[in-house]
Fold this protein.
Amino acid sequence: MNRIGVFTSGGDAPGMNAAIRAVVRAGIFYNKEIVGIYRGYEGMIEGDFEEMDVRSVANILQRGGTMLKSARSKEFRTPEGRKKAFEQLKKHNIDGLIGIGGDGSFTGMHHLFLEHGLPYICIPGTIDNDIPGTDYTIGYDTATNTAVEAIDKIRDTALSHNRLFFIEVMGRDSGYIAISSGIAGGAVSIIIPEEETSIDELVEKLNRGGKKKKTSSLVIVAEGGKSGSAMEIAQKVKEKSSYFDTKVTILGHLQRGGTPTYFDRVLASKMGVAAIEGLDQGKTDVMVGIRHHDIIFNKFDDIMNQPKDIHKDDLRIAKILSI
Ligand code: ATP
């Protein structure tokens, strides 16, 4: 394998740049030519490619976002779209792919591989940490730290005004950011998509706190929960109890940006080098993962038909600490 294409796809995540840098530099170290593909699958279909060298990735290690830009492509979801993408890759003599993105991006590469035989390795880059086969995805640590910083700031105003705050964090189908930031931020309750939450129980818990002279409370809500958005839950709580002065804050895209933490930079660097070495050793249709500090490679079929469950023990700890 001589020419490898690298791209980012799906939602951007802090640390993606560190992964691009690692792929480019490790590729050059192993005498490969590296081609940057802009705007994910959209740019792949349009042939938005650029040769990369060591200097193209200078000074990006510490930057959030992705220098290669990201996109979501409807066309790539169709066999015709993938054929167009493959023809562009062939035209540019690309004989291997490294894609940095979430489970959707991984699925896209898998289909391209099945239909056209192009070897690839996926690097898990998503703030949601919702991909099985790895303890951590790139961006999750930074996004959680950003959420914790915001929660700490909101706590100051909650305390000053005796308020109940509902803080919505990202995680459409995954409660990872909510649980970790909720534990770190001392939330009284954490509402996640993986669990049903009873509004009555929540109100009862808040009332118990009120009776114990707890003057402010923070509830963390993951955006994709079955119980509704933070706004909807706050409304339901208000209807059942007029005791609280309630406010809602939605952290939103704030969580995607910013300087990646050391953890995400190191993770991305390790995964980028592993992806190049993996392709060089003939691995394909796999995602790089990290397990207990070690790099592993997961076959698509082994991990993508199972959900990534939240750590039950984290939930237990959150409940013990929020009495
Ligand atoms: P994030 O976790 O940040 O949302 P993601 O990679 O899961 O990242 P998606 O929007 O789900 O983000 O997927 C990114 C792109 O991958 C899509 O826009 C689409 O082009 C492609 N893709 C997703 N699912 C499929 C699929 N089943 N078949 C082919 N391509 C797909």
